[in-house]
Amino acid sequence: MDVRRSLARLLGIGAAAWLVSTPIAGQSPAAPQQPPLIREGAAEKISAHVYVIPDNSVPLVPNVGIVVGSKATLVIDTGLGALNGGAVLRAVGKVSTNSELYLVTTHVHPEHDLGAGAFPPATKMIRSKDQIEEIAASGLDMAKRFAGFSALHADLLQGAEFRTADITFDEEHTLDLGGVTVRFLAMGFNHTRGDTATFVEPDKVLFSGDVAMKLLPSVGAGASLTQWLTSQDRFTALAPVRVVPSHGPIGDASIMSDTKRFIETVQRRAAELKKAGKTVDETVTTLQAELAPTFGASPRMAGPIRAAYAQAP
To answer: Mapping DSSP to helix (H, G, I), strand (E, B) and coil, where does residue 84 land?
Structure first.
């Protein structure tokens, strides 16, 4: 399919096509939305070996990472469907001449993983065993939900499949791209069961996925808030200089300390209100009002509060 013709056709769909009412995949979309398309020619160099295509705060668009060594290049996240995956590959071609290409995703939600079909067959896909098990358990259920948002989303996801792993690991894997060592970390169940972080060692750049963002945490159903705190400590121990989340602005280690402070506050207050006999709905209403001046008013706050209430003694 000719990319420019396809893009023109997709953008011909009316603005109502990208109105999404429910927060999905770690974001709280505002209406009307921009189409979930990765920007062409937008890659920014943020360190000696790392480029980022920023999401520009567009819902269902990830911050895409490109790490360039002397012999190989690594891509982190793909965008929604092959059309976006193609945009990522064109960005790679502008910053790297390496023929050896690796791909990893922060988690298996469609806008992070289902652009992999555009990548060359020789690309080596890296997955934690947790990701592989999550794909086996849920398959393309989330992709089908996304495809129901609009004709645009359905078109972008047409024929999308999860790419089979070429390299698998349990807890951690190290890869040498040629003078650039990267570490892949299986983070446990935080936002999803297969959350995977990437740390570019010489540059001290951390790709944290949805596990550490300036946005409030999006806690996966059934995930432990204690695991979220453990993950923040694990990230902090890496002493990153730059933190690139899945969505939203790039930051530094303060992202983890802010996330930890929010979770600890929610845990403490939810436990107090539960002990005082408040219902979960009362607790959500109370804490949303109480914490908004410090952490911002957001519908995302309800999820962590409900998790904290359920997990409190």
So the answer is: helix
Of 220, 214, 175, 215, which is closest to residue 198 (Cα–Cα)? 175
Residue in 244, 188, 181, 185 with CA at minimum distance from that of residue 212: 244
List residues bridging with 104 in a β-sheet.
Answer: 76, 126
Find the DSSP H helices in 28-159.
Answer: 81-95, 110-113, 129-138, 141-147, 151-157
What domains lie within the chain, and their CATH numbers? 3-219+240-252 (3.60.15.30)
pLDDT digits (tens, 9 = 90+) for 236-261: 999 999 999 999 999 999 999 999 99
Enter the tokens of residue 174. 């190290």
The tokens of 130 are what? Answer: 């947790």
Other C-beta atoms lying within 10 Å of the C-beta of residue 1: 11
Contact 28, 21 (CB under 8 A): no
Angle of the 81-95 helix axis to the 3-11 helix axis, nearest 10: 130
What is the Cα–Cα distance from 60 to 77, expressed in whole angstroms?
Answer: 12
Helix (H) or strand (E) holding 227: helix 225-237
Which residues have C-beta within 8 Å of that of residue 261, sequence separation ≥ 6? none
Strand-pairing partners, residue 172, are: 185
| CA-based end-to-end distance of the chain | 56
As a whole number of angstroms, the distance between CA 245 and CA 301 comes to: 18
pTM summary value: 0.91
DSSP element (H, E) containing 232: helix 225-237
